[in-house]
Amino acid sequence: MSPHSSLASTALDADRILVIYTGGTIGMEQHAHGLSPGGDFAARMAAALTQLPIAHQRSLPAYDVVSYSTLIDSSAATPLTWQQLAHDINDKLSTYAGFVIIHGTDTLSWTASSLAYQLQGLDRPVVLTGAMKPLETEHSDGLENLHGALQFAAKPELKEVAIYFAGKLLRGARAIKQHSEALDAFASPSYPLLGERVGDDFVYYPSRGLGLQQRGAPRFELPDYGCVCHGEVIRIVLWPGIAAWQLDAWLSDSRIKGALLQLWGAGNLPDAPDLLDVMAKASGEGKLLAAISQCPQGSIQLGAYAAGHGLNDAGILAGDDMTPEAAFTKLVHLLAQPLPSELRRQRFIASLVGER
Ligand code: ASP
C-alpha cells in the first residue's frame, strides 16, 4: 500500500497541504457489485472544488494529492493501515505544512485515534475526512467536507490529529461514528468541538486544542504494528448472561496480548466471581486488560458499585471516558512497543494526546 504521486505539481512550498487518498465512499463509484473506490481522485477533487464560490476557491491552500495504490473501503483497514499512514506523514513532514487524509467513514475514527498515538507531539494539522455520499452524487457532503478539511489543515495553530466532518472539527482520539446514514455522522461525546464552520469562516478554538501544550520537536512513536495485527488485541462487549467459559475462550488463548472490555454503566459486570477469576488469570499472565463503559457518554468508576467491585484486584485498567476507538488503539500502540509491563500500564491510564 505505498503511495504514488498523482499530481504533476511537486513544487515545495512551506504552506502546501498534502492530501492522502486512501479510499472510502467519498471517492466511490458504482460497480457491478456495489460501490467501490474509484481512481483519479486528484482530478475529481479539483473539479469538485471549482463548484465552490470564487471567494472560497481563492482562500483554499495549495495542495498536492497522493493516492494509495490499493484503495480500500475502510472496513478493510487494519493496524497496518494505521501504521502506513503514520509513516507516510512522517516521511513528508518537512515538506508539508498540513495533511488531509481522505478515508472511509466506517473506521475513520479508529484511524484518527491510532494516528494520534503514533504522531505524539505533532506540530501541525492532520485532518481526516470523508463523506457519506460519493463526491459526484447529488447532495453529496464530499465537497463541503473537503473544503473544511483543507481550511483547517492550513491553520498552523492546529497541532493534532482531528476529524472534519459536517461543519465540525473533532479531536481524532475523542471521536466516534454515531450515525450510519446521516451526513452529520461523527460526534465527540465527551469532549467539546475543536472548531467549526460558522457561516463562511472555519473557526478553531485554541483553548481546547493540544497546540498550546505542544513544545519542541514532535515525539512520534512509530513502532512496528506487525506483532499486533493478527488479532492479538480483542474487544469484548458484555451482554446479560455472559458466562465465564465464554470470556475464558477469548482471554486464555495464548495469542491474546490485550483486551478491551466494555462493561455496563459506570463500570459494572454480572455478580459472578468466576468472570473476575478469568480476568485475574489473564492479567496474571501479563495480558493488558482495560475497561470502558458501553455507554457512549460518561466515565467509569471501577468499584463504585458492588457489581464492579473486584475489577481493580483483577488487574483491570480503567479507561475512564475514552471512546472504544481510543482505548483499543491505545492498547495496540502500547503492546506494539517493547515496554516493561508496569510502564505500559502507567501509560494506559495517563492522557497521552488528550484522549481521556
Ligand atoms: N464503507 C465506507 C467506508 O468506510 C463508508 C464510507 O466511507 O462512508 O469506506
Task: Describe the model.
This protein has 356 residues and is α/β, with parallel strands linked by helices. Helix content is 26%, strand content 22%. It has 9 helices and 17 strands. The chain has helices at 41-49, 54-58, 79-92, 108-118, 142-153, 244-251, 273-284, 324-335, 341-349; strands at residues 3-5, 17-23, 28-31, 34-37, 63-72, 98-102, 126-129, 161-165, 168-171, 176-177, 186-187, 195-198, 201-204, 233-237, 258-263, 288-293, 317-318. The strands form 4 sheets. A 9-stranded mixed sheet has the order 1-5-2-6-7-8-9-12-13, sandwiched between helices. Strands 14-15-16-17 form a 4-stranded parallel sheet, with helices on both faces. α3 (79-92) crosses α4 (108-118), α4 crosses α8 and α6 packs parallel to α7 (273-284). The two termini are 32 Å apart. The model is unreliable at 1-11 (pLDDT under 50). The structure holds aspartic acid.
Topology:
Elements: E1 3-5, E2 17-23, E3 28-31, E4 34-37, H1 41-49, H2 54-58, E5 63-72, H3 79-92, E6 98-102, H4 108-118, E7 126-129, H5 142-153, E8 161-165, E9 168-171, E10 176-177, E11 186-187, E12 195-198, E13 201-204, E14 233-237, H6 244-251, E15 258-263, H7 273-284, E16 288-293, E17 317-318, H8 324-335, H9 341-349
Helix pairs in contact: 3-4, 4-8, 6-7
The protein binds aspartic acid (ASP).
